[in-house]
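Two proteins were folded this term; both appear here.
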Amino acid sequence: MKALFIEHDHTSPPGPIGDAFSRRGFEIDERVVVPGERYYSPNVEFEFPDPNEYDVLVPMGSPWGAWDDATIGTWLLPELEWLRRADQLAIPVFGICFGGQLLARAHGGTVGRAPTCEIGWSTLHTDDPELVDAGPWFQFHYDRWTLPPGATEIARTSRASQAFTLRRNLALQFHPELTAHELDLWLECDGRELVEKDGQDPDALMAHTRAIEADAARRADSLVGAFLEHVAHS
């Protein structure tokens, strides 16, 4: 079995989500769309692999908007078509943050700027805790989706929808892959300024992340198991 991780920038390693798929027998293939040297000019050419070659697709987060055709349309628009093709082929997709927003847009929902951002660890209201539990889960986003036709919303906060299922697709607004290492990468790439602009202390956020990292990894593992059982095999 093979799982393809689409890492839209150089600061998005699979973390405990990749580990969870590996423990269940998946070979992990990682592809980076925008290399580090193109971080500030991200409209690169990228060829998405044939989805037929994989058993699961995992489009991950991104510092850019899933609505921003002007900035990243060279690869954003092909990725939307690629996800529609995967859906036609009934290939399961586990979409994380930007990846979840792509699923919303690809299948008829919308994505746009939210009135306020969500940054940090938050608890969700969930209708299906066996699939997506209440967390806490890590948030770092400025956008939100509207549900595509036929989707079932699973979880939400007061600020944004947080998870939905649609056929063999699971869209997540939060970051179950987040580790202290990944947060450190984000803070180095403009993240510290963004956290401070939200009125938070980046060092305190990092300390919080280190303190609950092991528990968060266990929740991530359970989430992957539930996805494979209840969504991918539905």
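Next, the second protein.
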Amino acid sequence: MKQYLDILEYCLTNGTLSDNRTGTPTIRIPWGATFTHDMQNGFPLITTKKMPPKTIFTELEFFIKGITDKQWLQERKCHIWDEWGNADAWVPEFEKKQEALRAELGKELNTEQIKQCRNQAMNECRDLGPVYGWQWRHWNGTYQFDP
């Protein structure tokens, strides 16, 4: 895993901070980085955190089937995608939640209240968008959520 850790160190040392489509701060590096591994030497599991085999197999099945509904994962006690959602789906709900809370309080929201609305909208959104498995099955296709 030294190669992986070297890539992380390179990103932290040479990367620049920017936002992505979800508004989450992201470290970007010019030209990206490539991780190569000979599968004859085993599976390249990242060992910097615990990875229960059931979680790995569940997520892999999710990808192979091309599923984009995070409820499928949650029903199988796999919660690694819980904090994510398709911005096209959750942003309108986020805006509704902000407006409702603003109307209820009768004033502008502070940063923490906005963050809570965002997290609630994202957590309630089942649609993950065209994640890995969907792209594997529908390369260059037009994405539409189908729960």
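The chain has six helices and two strands. Residues 24 and 147 are 26 Å apart (CA to CA). These notes refer to the second protein only.
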